[in-house]
Structure formats: C-alpha cells, structure tokens
Amino acid sequence: MQHDKTSRVFVAGHRGMVGSAIVRRLLSDGYINVITAGRDELDLLDQGAVHSFFQENEFDQVYLAAAKVGGIQANNTLPAEFIYENLMIQANIIHAAHSHDIQKLLFLGSSCIYPKLAEQPMREDALLTGALEPTNEPYAIAKIAGIKLCESYNRQYGRDYRSVMPTNLYGPNDNYHPDNSHVIPALLRRFHEACKRGDSEVVIWGSGTPMREFLHVDDMAAASVYVMNLDNQTYQANTKPMLSHINVGTGQDCTIKQLAETVAKVTGFKGALTFDSSKPDGAPRKLMDVSRLKSLGWESSIELEEGLNNAYEWFVDNAANARSH
C-alpha cells in the first residue's frame, strides 16, 4: 500500500456525503495536505476555472467525488441537468489532472451504470451489456462516460486513473430533502416525523419485497482510500485495461420491508408499517458482486443497524440543515 501522508490530495465534492467522508478518512489516516474548494471558490462546470485551480495547486492525488445526485423524482424531472453537469464536472477534472501531470486519480461512479436487467449479483463485466433503467439513464450514461474517460487516459497516456462503483450509500451529510432523497434518508425522516406527531402508522411505497444493498459512507471512504493506494502490480492483477472499475458494496442485501423494520427500530417508531402496492417497486433486486474488491483485500465492516443508528444520530443533530438540502 502506497501511503505518503505528505501527499497533496484534492477532494472534489468535499461538502457532499461521499466527499466529506473521504476527507474525514484521509485526516484520520494522518494525511496533512488535504485540499478542498467549495462552490464559492471553484465552479467545477467552468473548464477554465478548473484548469487555473490545478495550475495554482500542485496535487499528487485527486478524488473525484463531486457530482449532481438525486433520487428518482429528481432524475426524472431534471434529466438535462443530470447528464450535462456530471459530464462537465468529470471531463473538466479528469482532463485538468492529466494536463497538469497528475498520475493518480480516483473516480466515484454508481451502481446504476449496470443494465436494468443485469444478472444478480452485478459483476463489473455487466457494463454495457443491456439497456439501462430509464428513470436515471442520463445520470448513468454520464457515470459510464467517467469510467471511459479514466480508461482512455490510462490507455493513451499511461495514467493511473481508477474507478470505484458504490452500491446504495447512506450516512452523515446525506440528502434528506422530502422529495429528492434516496430510500434510507427518506425513511429515516418519515419515521422520525411520525414519532414526533405520534402517528400510529407509516405508509411505505411499494410492496416491500424488492431487495437492495446498502453501504455506509464511511465504509465507502475507507474503500476509496484503500483502492487509491493499492500498488500498481496488485491493482492491475485484479483489473483489465478496458474493465478498470471496481464494485464497492457489502455483498449482502435486504428487502425494503426489512429495511423499514430496522429504521422503525432505530427511530423508536412503535406503530404499524403499511406497504402501498399501488406504488412502483422498481427493479426486484440490485446487489453488487464484490468479489474483485475482496480479492484485493478489502471488505466492509459497518453492519446495517449500526450504520442506520449513526445516520439517524447525524440527522437528529442536523435536522434544520438536512431539511434545506
């Protein structure tokens, strides 16, 4: 493992859930030169500004965690923003890294890159083997483009740009917007507010039978730093030139019903859980094959209930800000 704690490391997207977790991890690991830039300092959609920023700062490593993200409703209603902004952010940062001779970069993608009907669990080589989920296709295509950008700079210029594909993430700094959040923050907020009102019932969209995999963002950050610092020989022995991305997950899933029951336990909700089967379920199962990452020596360590407790504590402590995301 290559761990030079004096390396100058730029984390793009440090205010987001994943980026902030990577910063926490780097600092706890003893890195002393972690560089960040907020939107008021650097517009990642502005190619000239990004290149100027890279010229002014000499980086050794770049974590590309910046992205426009959202739930099904956001992806459905803002497809142009999701494909344009993600393509621009990725292209600007990856090209700037290459232009300023930065050899090491880690790009963070998403499990939605895989076909809607991919065989379960989803392996890395399922990429581009079938049609994508229509509701988030623009976002998925942008993330696929990010993987291919990294692969292309590696192939043409000998760069060491790696990509990790996380499963569904949750944890501190998640988005708790009432309309645009993902399933865990949506459920935590709904159950929290039901407890405050003294509701006797919480209604959950869908049948509760679909299965999903969830990874705490602190585990994702640990995996990201681990993959970034793997020596080339170990990394390349477990990847292929045109299949360079690595799945990151727990390798375990649960039903939405089981998730809701655990959220009820964590939040202290004592009422009934009702599932509205008239609402869409989405894909019946989404599970990542994480055998490649395990072969590289990393496994997740945060169990779901432990992680949900941590996420809920953060939400309670930051409820005012979490609502305004």
Automatic annotation (TrEMBL):
Annotated pathway: Nucleotide-sugar biosynthesis; GDP-L-fucose biosynthesis via de novo pathway; GDP-L-fucose from GDP-alpha-D-mannose: step 2/2
Name of the protein described by the UniProt record: GDP-L-fucose synthase
Pfam families for the chain: Epimerase (PF01370)
SUPFAM superfamilies listed in its UniProt record: NAD(P)-binding Rossmann-fold domains
Membrane-spanning parts: none
Entry EC number(s): 1.1.1.271
UniProt-annotated catalytic positions: 139
Lineage: Bacteria, Pseudomonadati, Pseudomonadota, Gammaproteobacteria, Pseudomonadales
Binding site for NADP(+): 13-19, 108-111, 143, 166-169, 182
Binding site for substrate: 190, 205, 212, 281
Top-level EC class as recorded in UniProt: oxidoreductase
Keyword terms: Isomerase, Multifunctional enzyme, NADP, Oxidoreductase
Top-level division of the source organism's lineage: Bacteria
